[in-house]
Design goal:
With about 325 residues, the protein is α/β, with parallel strands linked by helices. It is about 50% helix and about 20% strand. It has helices spanning about 1-25, 40-55, 80-85, 105-110, 115-125, 125-140, 180-190, 200-205, 215-220, 245-250, 255-290, 300-310, 320-330; strands spanning about 30-35, 60-65, 90, 140-145, 145-155, 170-175, 190-195, 210-215, 230-245, 295. Strands 1, 2, 3, 4, 5, 6, 7, 8, 9 and 10 form a 10-stranded mixed beta sheet that branches. The longest helix has about 35 residues, at about 255-290. The radius of gyration is 22 Å and the shape is globular. It starts with a helix and ends with a helix. The model is unreliable at about 1-20 (pLDDT under 50).
Length: about 325
């Protein structure tokens, strides 16, 4: 009888705590996440980690639905979709935010960051927090952190080493379709050609473009190496994706819900960063085993060329050059 009573009391206590938790969290909410990343991409899997953490930590109070492979919106539509609350979250990069916030372009410029440690110290520190708040005010889309996508390299369909920017002269290099991405292609010395990520494999296969730039983990997960012959290590952009949420939706959440979401973002970041760092360390040998030739670029020549290009371009007119110098000094 005592055991039964103890079980009843334990059940009542559990129900009471669950009720209190639900009451503290506020009304249940649903977060629709739209991604153009393929489901096998590390950052897509990291968003699944976010989903798992948030749903478990909230006891189901926060329901997360993740859609990959551009099922809901194309790469060009994602920011607008989140700003309009047609989806509540996505993973965006600095280059997709420059249309309404041109100053963000300095985070998308080549060779702003020298390493992973440099990038994450800036974007997941006070500078990043301040920049993300300003983006939220200007665009209604609030980045909540920065996940490491990998350092971007140049890969070509032909076996060809790219030692200096001059070697990219006349190369039709696929870039995402935004002004900031296309400007990066020009800064590298190439002829940037805008193609959506979901169309890139076929474009490489059919010769619509000569090559593309992406981090090594993306080249592997999207299987671009199947239709390419060479990769040159340029490290021209220490790339990150930013889990971003509709600002009005965010402001409508309780503090407890916001805390859980931020914890989920950190869980996703930990998975994404650690996985991509480990994969980068081993993928060069994998690509060689697949028959690709891997070359090393003259990084100093590229960095000097890209920096000079940006400083001479109207693109940098909206940048905070003092802040940019502070960021570079941190590296």
């Amino acid at each position: 009888m005592k055991k039964i009573l103890a079980l009843v009391l334990a059940l009542l206590l559990s129900l009471s705590l669950s009720g209190a938790l639900a009451e503290d969290l506020g009304a249940p909410v649903k977060i629709v996440v739209t991604l153009t990343a393929v489901s096998t991409d590390t950052h897509a899997k990291a968003m699944m980690e976010f989903e798992r953490y948030v749903e478990e930590a909230s006891g189901g109070n926060i329901d997360v639905e993740v859609y990959t492979d551009a099922v809901l919106f194309t790469q060009e539509e994602e920011v607008v979709a989140v700003a309009g609350n047609d989806a509540q979250m996505s993973l965006v990069s600095a280059s997709w935010l420059t249309t309404l916030s041109p100053w963000v372009g300095m985070f998308a410029a080549g060779y702003t960051f020298k390493s992973y440690d440099h990038m994450t110290a800036v974007l997941n520190g006070e500078i990043g927090k301040s920049a993300f708040a300003r983006i939220g005010e200007e665009q209604g889309v609030l980045p909540l952190g920065a996940w490491y996508l990998g350092s971007r390299q140049i890969s070509l369909s032909e076996d060809r080493a790219i030692r200096t920017p001059e070697d990219l002269n006349g190369v039709n290099l696929r870039m995402p379709n935004s002004d900031a991405w296309l400007e990066l292609g020009r800064a590298l010395g190439a002829n940037p050609t805008p193609i959506s990520f979901s169309e890139l494999y076929l474009a490489l296969q059919t010769g619509v473009v000569d090559g593309q730039d992406n981090p090594l983990p993306t080249v592997e997960s999207a299987k671009f190496y199947e239709v390419q012959s060479s990769i040159t290590i340029t490290n021209h952009l220490v790339d990150s994706v930013w889990p971003a949420i509709n600002l009005e939706f965010w402001n409508g959440l309780t503090e407890a819900q916001q805390r859980i979401i931020l914890e989920g973002v950190e869980a996703g970041r930990k998975y994404c960063d650690e996985t991509n760092l480990a994969r980068e360390a081993e993928l060069v040998e994998f690509f060689k085993s697949q028959g690709l030739h891997v070359y090393e670029a003259d990084l100093d020549a590229f960095a000097a060329h890209v920096t000079d290009y940006y400083l001479a371009s109207p693109t940098s007119a909206d940048w905070d050059l003092d802040l940019l110098e502070q960021i570079r000094a941190m590296g």
